Amino acid sequence: MPMIMAEDALYHLLSWLSPSYPVGAFAHSNGIEWAVAAGWIDDRMTLEEWLEAVLTEGAAWNDAVLFACAYRAAAQGDHATLAAVAELAAAMHPSRERRTEALAQGEAFRRIALATTGEASHAPLADCAPSELSYPVAVAIMTAGHEIPLSLALTAYLHAFTANLVSAAQRLVPLGQTDGQKAILALKPRVTQTVERASALPPGDPFRFLGSATWIADVASMAHETQYTRLFRT
Known about the structure:
Elements: H1 3-16, H2 32-37, H3 44-57, H4 59-75, H5 79-91, H6 96-116, H7 123-127, H8 135-145, H9 150-170, H10 177-186, H11 188-199, H12 215-223
Helix pairs in contact: 3-4, 3-10, 4-5, 4-8, 4-9, 4-11, 6-8, 8-9, 9-10, 9-11
């Protein structure tokens, strides 16, 4: 990638996936709030174990698959496939809260991206129904439109996903800033592994590659809907 493009890609990724980009990520815990209340997460080690599973076998893995498929469809101008991936991404959630988390952030990302860029290369964002646009699909469309390499875009997305959940845990567990950064660093191999796996998937129906083995995390997102005292929306 030419130096000027590398600098542009880095700047865009830092902007779009920064905590300051107003998608409302701070309001979501991905079920971690209930896991803390249940005693399943109570320190840095249990948080790392939880997030490792989510990254390699749970919601983050499915996000990575959908991201990769949407990215390739957008890059190739394959609007039919992109629409099918977007529809699948909007429907494939184990709980109401997970769906809210994905679609609320996707709608916010779409709105801000169109208001601040409005480039023709992002036309697929404008074509997608805002209430049915999942967050990983929205980011994939933007990064593909700017010709940012898939591996870089997906690494940035999963790093932001991980960092946001570590931040959520810091507000729920006796977990300091240093331990939070240790957790993010410790999860780097899992982020890298998930990026490599998703980037290497062959073309075809994404449904073949989707799946979750983190049923406790899924139960946590369901139970959070009725949690009596809570800080987070999900």
